[in-house]
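Dear colleagues,

As part of the handover before I leave the project, I'm documenting each prediction I ran so the next person doesn't have to rerun anything. This entry is a single chain, and its sequence is reproduced below.
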Amino acid sequence: MKRRLMDLIRCPACGGRLDLRVRREADEAVSVPVPAPACRHWCARHERSLESRPAGFAPDCRACYAADVREGTLGCRSCHAHYPIAHGVPRLFRNAADPAVFDPRSNESFGLQWERHRDGDRTWFKNDLDLRRGEFLQSLDLPADALRGALVLDGGCGNGRLTTVVSGYGAEVVGMDLSRSVDGAERRRAGIAGERAPFVHFIQGNIMQPPLAPAAFDHIHSSGVLHHTPDTHRAFRAFRRLVRPGGRVYVQLYRRREAWVGIPNRLIRAVTSRLPVGLLHRLCWAAVPLHTALVRLVARLRGERTAIHEASRGERALSLFDNYSPRYQHRYHPAEVRRMFEAEGLAEVKDVTLANEARHMVAFVGTRPPEAVAPRRQAS
């Protein structure tokens, strides 16, 4: 964890500022220009406010980005809650016993899913380092140069590959996930980002109670995450508060499917989402040949081509597991997602669903107006 994060993270219990206690710290080479100051409110290295700094005070930002806190503790000044930093990742979540904001089943499912996802595997049958990097720009509806110097949040970062490659646009990126996938993301961070590694951060946190300062980010992005929470609308409201005025908000959700697909899926999930996750993963592995045959048959009946056979058996098994394991799987029509954005006061709302995902997903992007707009609350 870079001390830089101290300007961005907050206590998930009360929103208070956190104090850092370091037990072990390592140095990391920084060979690229460092913004000075990158932090807007608090200099963690010198432990002083940047809003009332004396004349001539010059934060040592390069040293701050080079220092990497591997083990330590974060303590809230207001409610005195404490959160660990382990293996370089701050663990900032609470209320693990509250079903309204925390679902242990989904947390366990996605932890196992990313644990079984090997570095050579594709994510959703896509090449992360090429195709998905370009799709990120399409999702935010921005040119590449708009990300240079921007601070971006990837909410629900999974294996962290997309989070990390986005830094190649010159952005500083924070990836957050509730599952233990952040450990793998942190381990592979430098291998993917190279010299941009100091500008990629990972935290473990709940998107329904994000441990981040309001209006901290230039752009925020969440792909395939909010529909797995206990309350999609509540999660969206919490997520939307993290973007600055003028920034983009991107969310991708599951699309409501035709009855002949949706009804059998719900009936199967009524059983599979209650099975032990280890057992279900083995069943998904065994079911791959049958599922592949069904997909190819349906594609033939539709007169379409499918590339499912190009994926490895492991990739196909994880795709099945992703569908059948999580407890929550909310689905939406595009009009419902548009209303969700507009109800939260977002402007320039646009459907940016990718053509290669349109059958299964729906995605929208919107802009937080420069001046705050009082949102129209809608029933969850």
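The chain is about 30% helix and 20% strand. Residues 1-92 form a domain with the N-terminal domain of TfIIb fold (CATH 2.20.25.10).

All the best with the project,
I.
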